[in-house]
Amino acid sequence: MDLCHIPATREKGWYLALMAPNLKGPNYAWLDPSRLYCHPQGLQDCVADLLQPFQGDAIDLVAGVDAMGFILGAAAAATLRKGFLAIRKAGHLCVQTAAQPYTDYSGREKVMEVRTDAISPGLRILLVDQWVETGGTMRAAIELVERLGGVVAAPLCVPTGVAAICIENSEGGKWIQERYKCSHCVPPRLQPRFDQHQ
């Protein structure tokens, strides 16, 4: 798809066709959304679709998960006129941090960190990542936010939650969707293809 082309009818998820399949093998994600971010209207519509379920919700801060969640998270924060917090892979922050070990989509053991001075008790946070495949990375981010007193979702108030281009129907993806308000861009008719990495 041409990076200047805008379809006459822009249904939810039209921009998913901008993504490119993995050409480099099993150590990489099966699909690369970075080309979508190069398309001005595609990026705007993607962010709008991610934020639509949260319209009217009280969101204090947007947090993006290292590294590709920084792109969508910062765009969402700018759209909402909120601050942006980077949740980093370990070893990049030179301030006091809280850490959480996790296993990523490729099965590698990693550690995630967040600065301890950015989240105060009760702060309502929208967590954004590019993709939720096995759910390990997002679950670690949720655990960090909640350990510091932030609210990703709470039954007694309007919840904030989790947003990603795709939340797969994996065991981890289902765990997140059952517990948190979630938003993603994949239309229901395409979800099985994304779950099967087709």
UniProtKB/TrEMBL annotation:
<dbReference type="InterPro" id="IPR000836">
    <property type="entry name" value="PRTase_dom"/>
</dbReference>
<comment type="similarity">
    <text>Belongs to the purine/pyrimidine phosphoribosyltransferase family.</text>
</comment>
<keyword id="KW-0963">Cytoplasm</keyword>
<keyword id="KW-0660">Purine salvage</keyword>
<dbReference type="InterPro" id="IPR050120">
    <property type="entry name" value="Adenine_PRTase"/>
</dbReference>
<feature type="domain" description="Phosphoribosyltransferase">
    <location>
        <begin position="56"/>
        <end position="150"/>
    </location>
</feature>
<protein>
    <recommendedName>
        <fullName>adenine phosphoribosyltransferase</fullName>
        <ecNumber>2.4.2.7</ecNumber>
    </recommendedName>
</protein>
<dbReference type="GO" id="GO:0005737">
    <property type="term" value="C:cytoplasm"/>
</dbReference>
<dbReference type="InterPro" id="IPR029057">
    <property type="entry name" value="PRTase-like"/>
</dbReference>
<comment type="subunit">
    <text>Homodimer.</text>
</comment>
<keyword id="KW-0328">Glycosyltransferase</keyword>
<dbReference type="GO" id="GO:0006166">
    <property type="term" value="P:purine ribonucleoside salvage"/>
</dbReference>
<comment type="pathway">
    <text>Purine metabolism; AMP biosynthesis via salvage pathway; AMP from adenine: step 1/1.</text>
</comment>
<dbReference type="Pfam" id="PF00156">
    <property type="entry name" value="Pribosyltran"/>
</dbReference>
<dbReference type="GO" id="GO:0003999">
    <property type="term" value="F:adenine phosphoribosyltransferase activity"/>
</dbReference>
<keyword id="KW-0808">Transferase</keyword>
